[in-house]
Request: fold
Amino acid sequence: MDTNALTREDRALLHHRLVDGSQIWRGGLDMLEARYRLRGRSTPETIELACTLAEPPYLHWELTYTRATELVSYTYATLPQAPELDPDQLAAVERILQQEGELWLSPPSGSFQVLSLSDGLAALERCRGHGRGQEPAVRHTRFVDRLALIYLLDDARRDVELCVWVDLERERIAGVEWPNFPVPICGRWYPAEEIAQIERTLREEGDFGVYGDVRDGLRALMRHAKVSISSSENRWHVGVHPPNHHGHTLHVDIDRTTGAITCCSAGHALPLDIDEVEPLIEDPEELV
Reply:
């Protein structure tokens, strides 16, 4: 961070104001410094931070703390100052997406899904994730650090809903993110090698007797059940749920290094009967 621009007092003031705000700011200025290149500016009225991601998707936000109101505000993301993809690069991206064939995604909104890339760039519209815009997204491209970046924006909000970046030299998808400031929305893309390891483990170790058998793999499971995948630092967490929320459930934890199953639990889901739920307020007129 450009420490010459902000005094120690201004840094402390901004840090504590962020920490005292919502949960997404709980890391305060330390969290921003770890994720962004920051450039600070202080005036009698405001403390301003220019926040730029040093890695994909290379987006930029402007944060402003107003001293009089003690409020923090920030702009929508702006794209990096870099050239757009030329026709040859765009054609290469289209070809690479089609070669990859599919994306395994846990989008921010919606269930775990396998997105077909048979129609290349057009397919990305189906995983925008925010669920904000009803109109088709506006596509922008950039070429940064040998990566081809595809951005989908909500035209009305000018908000970046999705970024996919492709390594043109290695001819592979290198990342997928649903951008958000100060931290990305909690969706995740699972590269093919991770899915292959999860599939291999389920096929080799997925017979749990009366509790369930998942040896047919993820694709077979997704034909008759709802499948969820999430990840932590050391494990993948695979859940199998009945499609109508009534029936057998199974959860499996897989070690990301060894591929071994470290935990398995099973249960039974029952639908919620609204008629049997007691109201929190017996007489709504009491609130009037």
Observations:
- The chain has five helices and 15 strands.
- Residues 223 and 243 are 10 Å apart (CA to CA).
